[in-house]
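User: Can you predict the 3D structure for this chain?
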Amino acid sequence: MKTSVDCIPCFVRQTLEAVRFVSTYPSVHEGVVREILRCLARFDFDQPPPVVGQMIHRRLRELTGNPDPYKSVKERYNRLALEMLPELREQVKQQPDPLLASVRLAITGNVIDFAAISGLTEDGVRSSISRALAEPFSIDIDRLRREIKRASSILYLADNAGEIVFDRLFIEQLPTDRVTIAVRGRPVINDATLDDARAAGLDEIARVIHNGSDAPGTVLDDCDLTFQAHFNAADLVIAKGQGNYETLNDEKKNILFLFRIKCETVASRTGFKTGTNVLTGTPGKNG
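Assistant: Here is the predicted structure, written as structure tokens:
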């Protein structure tokens, strides 16, 4: 998926929010934004948005000297989600269709996204999760069941810290002996790394690997060979988040994307309205 000019305001917002995490000086904010704007002017917009995001956040980390500007944010939302986990797990058990309930909660967890959502708060996350089992979704749960049943190996591509705790509810409904969970190889925005996966307890229920990349999506050519081998061998890839959709939606692979539509660019690509929680597949895959 190519980057749209409509993505530029979002990149600038990300830059300003990130630099404000690490500095209170307006002169620093201005200098970083100016540098990122110069980088954007030279960038190849035939690349997907997460490749642009990777460039921006690499440069931002260089300019600020901070290797993980979102570290405290990730820790905070991991704690929040873990506090909610026991009650949500009980809710899933009480639902007539626990798999569907867990999928809905996992997709709703995709609201914890500092790349696409401005002004996110803990109360906002709690409110979204509390409505998760009542809101309308676009989910072909029968297709999901078929794909899970016939897959001898499942690769689950995680997205953000905090969100991965809600992913755990879904992963617990899967045949975990056939599941490998992949996170980012290095910090970028609030995307989950191995530290976040361990904090969420994902390593207690399935194998966890990293992809070797610091792109806020899955750019296969930028991932390490171990991850690429897992990706190629998987019968089913379950990809969380809009960044994974933007980088993998044209792949000739059996991929199911679970995410919230957060912008008009992706809405027009998918045919769903902004704000919709969806489960959609790669082109040509009809289940």
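Strands lie at 154-157, 179-183, 207-210, 236-240, 255-260, 277-281. The chain has two domains: 5-64, 71-281.
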